[in-house]
Amino acid sequence: MTTVAVIGVGSMGRNHARVYREMPEVELVGIADENPYAAEAVARMYCVPGYTDYREMLMRERPDAVSVVVPSAHHFTVARDVLAAGSHALVEKPLATTLDEAQQLIEFAEQAGRILMVGHIERYNPAIIELRRRLNAGQLGRIFQIHARRLGPFPSRIHDVGVVMDLATHDLDIMRYLTGSEAVHVVAEVGRHVHPAYEDMFAGMVRFANGALGVLEINWLTPRKIRELYVTGERGMFHVDYITQDLRFCENAETNGDDWAPLSLLRGVKEGPETKFAVSKREPLHLELEAFVSQVKGENTSAANGRDGHAAMALAVAFIESSQTGTVRRLVPVPQNGVAV
């Protein structure tokens, strides 16, 4: 039986607690929140001890693994304390608020021999899982472009980061995950219209070492929530709707199984049939926490780790710097082995 705890039981933290209680061979042994009313309510709901001091909970309950679901500004301190207490840590993204803090957490986890996982939940969307399987099987051929659209109204809970660090990190992680490549350079524009301190609108482009172009369109200004991904390549275009977990493929009718090189000279691209694939729909958070617990048991090493979190943060920082200087931000390519910049 793997024992787990949750630190921070706002809206997302409550979901972590709920999912842990639904998982077999997992025991939720405690929750902590500095708000005594939130701590008491969730503790009572799941019949577990509740604490306002998470350090006391770590000392008394000694959980094997802990979800850190506190505001971003506290990720570093809380995650460091969790690791120091001997527990494995899943930290909601962003991993920290600075790259230096993120790197310190990675090194601390390695020295402690503990798992540090980052909550890049979109990796666990069943449509993304199926898309990656098909890309790895070569069904699209070479990837030309990945276009992410993540739009919606302003979330009042967000005060300590802007839309780039809060939302773009999802899509930057997915782009790295799907292409298996690292960024060469980025360029961005941002705007601030409703957020009191940070950007709430972002448009950016990122060029990857393998030649793929990433396009990001993200804001907190759109009345309707949109979460979409388009992946265009030699044989057509995949379309993912994160919300409905739908995956579609619009085929380039001119390929017909042929190589791209002669087609690009002779025929190019023509609209072909569209296919909607059957995707077994599940809650991404459930799959993410299953992956975390599996890692804790030593059964799975493919989950998003601290270095993935650092890499997504590094790209977000580069985008912010590009928007501030009005220039292309050039990056040093890194080896294609999943190690972050």
Structural class: alpha/beta
Instruction: Give the mean pLDDT.
Output: 91
CATH architecture call of the largest domain: 2-Layer Sandwich
State the CATH topology of the largest domain: Dihydrodipicolinate Reductase, domain 2
Strand content: 25-35%
Give the distance, in angstroms, between the N- and C-terminal Cα atoms: 36 Å
- Name the CATH superfamily assignment of the largest domain: Dihydrodipicolinate Reductase, domain 2
Could you explain the architecture of this structure?
The protein has 10 helices and 15 strands. It has 341 residues and is an alpha/beta fold. It folds into 2 domains: 118 residues, NAD(P)-binding Rossmann-like Domain (Rossmann fold); 182 residues, Dihydrodipicolinate Reductase, domain 2 (2-Layer Sandwich). The longest helix has 20 residues. The chain starts with a strand and ends in an 11-residue tail after the last strand. 43% of the residues are buried.
Characteristics:
341 residues; Rossmann fold; Dihydrodipicolinate Reductase, domain 2; nine-stranded mixed beta sheet; six-stranded parallel beta sheet; globular; disordered C terminus
Topology of this structure?
Blueprint: E1 2-7, H1 11-22, E2 26-32, H2 36-46, E3 50-51, H3 54-61, E4 65-68, H4 75-84, E5 88-92, H5 99-112, E6 116-119, H6 126-136, E7 143-151, H7 163-179, E8 183-191, E9 201-208, E10 213-219, E11 226-233, E12 236-241, E13 246-252, H8 260-266, E14 271-277, H9 284-296, H10 306-325, E15 329-330
Parallel strand pairs: 1-2, 1-4, 2-3, 4-5, 5-6, 7-10
Antiparallel strand pairs: 7-11, 8-9, 8-15, 9-10, 11-12, 12-13, 13-14
Helix pairs in contact: 4-5, 5-10, 7-10
